[in-house]
Amino acid sequence: MDIRQLRYFLAIAKEENITRAAKNLNMEQPPLSRQLKLLEEELGIILFERSGKKIRLTQAGLILQERAKNLLHQFNETMTEIKEIDQGLQGTLSVGSVFSCVSLLPPKIKKFHERYPRVLFKLLEGDHVPLGEYLEKRTVELVITRLPFESNYPAEKYTVLPLHSDPFVIAIPQKWDFPQSFLRLEDISNIPLLALKSDTTVRLNQKVVNECRRFGFEPNIVCECSSVAISIALVIAGIGAIILPKSVMSSFPIAEIKILDILDTPMQSEVGVIWLKDSYHSKSARSFIALFEEETYDVKNPFD
């Protein structure tokens, strides 16, 4: 068994059809069938159940599929690491971010590109759960996120580089008659509020709810939104207001909403860069993390 055979096997498993797999691999179907037969003979097991033109993985095939993905990933990481020994920073750096942290990326990407112009960025945005999957599958090397990170995996899997604390503010429709640039939390008790909340990510909203309860009232929530973009659109439409970390607002047309400080609450949102422990990270990833470390002067370099 060799790396080439594993690639062939995974291509067939993905397509469940040898002809389509051969087309994707830019090869003829007979040689691919022959390689699969040789692999099965070497292992002494049947990897696929045949039913006409369609084939499905056997139990043994499913196990090999999972192991083969890991082996190929380790192989690719090893090749990348070896190549980087004598090369400058280049290639693609994949970074994930929750939408509410996207505004932190442009200045970092600009500075990074000035230093390392041969590196191409690939950015993926999503909620905590899909970003956790991206990290697990190595689709991205690191994630910029609100803390704590609410993925489906234990917190012990991640290294966390804490960044700045971000104060909460309230965004209200421009059409609302509110002459001041601030309010107190108790003033919010009668204001219709939007809640940023999904089935899997609840802590940001829960922090707001808990703080309102600390002041003796239940927030008047009129709508739960699964994304920041939806909630801001509803604010612009005059449906309600929303309490969010201040840095989120830089991604939206402020002319259509008002941003008010909240005077009497210590509510802060923690932000951090996270990545998988015990996993190889490219020079590009380590250098990008170093840019964030320049703002956290007392944080030790996690790669030292």
What does this entry show, briefly?
By secondary structure, this protein is of the alpha/beta class. Helices cover 37% and strands 25% of the residues. The chain has helices at residues 3-15, 18-24, 29-43, 59-84, 105-115, 128-136, 203-214, 228-236, 283-293; strands at 48-51, 54-57, 91-97, 119-125, 142-147, 158-173, 182-183, 193-196, 221-225, 241-245, 257-262, 268-276.
Draw up the topology in text.
Elements: H1 3-15, H2 18-24, H3 29-43, E1 48-51, E2 54-57, H4 59-84, E3 91-97, H5 105-115, E4 119-125, H6 128-136, E5 142-147, E6 158-173, E7 182-183, E8 193-196, H7 203-214, E9 221-225, H8 228-236, E10 241-245, E11 257-262, E12 268-276, H9 283-293
Parallel strand pairs: 3-4, 3-5, 7-11, 8-9, 8-10
Antiparallel strand pairs: 1-2, 5-12, 6-10, 6-11, 6-12
